[in-house]
Specification:
The chain is of the alpha/beta class. The chain contains four helices and five strands; from the N terminus they run E-H-E-E-H-E-E-H-H. Helix 1 (18-30) links the parallel strand 1 and strand 2. The longest helix is centred in the middle third of the chain and has 17 residues, at 106-122. It binds zinc ion.
Length: 173
């Protein structure tokens, strides 16, 4: 029995049950026999995550794309509803923008966060969107993010949850 921890940093406040919805998604991954963990747990932080283990991913919750941490750290253009920078020299950054129409409500916010953490854990850019997945696809025109977690998402994620992926370790400033 081991627990998969993931971390979220609230520069903007998500809906109240966001973390439970995101735990629920990761718990479905943990139920797969190929997953080395038995369940997931969310850890909440205000400005920066406190010493996540090398395999534990971080999602940054921002009010709008104008607050993009990826833009601050890497100078990249922000995404529409969210974005993940992979393989950067300062570590991965996953972020979602709570004012986007696809991110309204706790369930939609959790789905978008899970989508970005798929990019993060799988170290994939837009090529993730070509997979035959539910939450791995990018369907931001939907209001809210309406796709669901499917077996192919679980098949991709279950074996990589314990793989180290370097995360951005600084604080939001
Ligand atoms: Zn995406």
């Amino acid at each position: 029995m081991s627990i998969f921890n993931f971390h979220y940093v609230t520069i903007a406040e998500p809906r109240q049950s966001f973390f439970m919805e995101l735990e629920r998604l990761f718990n479905r991954v943990c139920a797969d026999p190929k997953c080395p963990f038995s369940e997931s747990a969310a850890w909440w932080w205000s400005y920066k995550p406190f010493q996540p283990l090398p395999h534990e991913p971080v999602i940054w919750l921002l009010e709008s794309a104008g607050d993009s941490l990826i833009k601050k750290v890497y100078g990249d253009q922000p995404g529409k509803a969210g974005l993940t920078k992979v393989r950067g020299n300062k570590g991965n950054i996953s972020e979602i923008y709570l004012d986007h129409r696809a991110n309204q409500g706790a369930t939609a916010q959790a789905k978008m966060a899970f989508h970005e953490l798929m990019h993060n854990k799988l170290q994939k850019g837009d090529e993730l969107h070509t997979e035959s997945t539910g939450l791995g696809r990018e369907r931001f025109e939907l209001r809210p993010f309406g796709d669901d977690l499917m077996f192919d998402d679980i098949r991709l994620m279950a074996p990589v949850l314990d793989k180290p992926v370097r995360q951005y370790a600084g604080s939001y400033s």
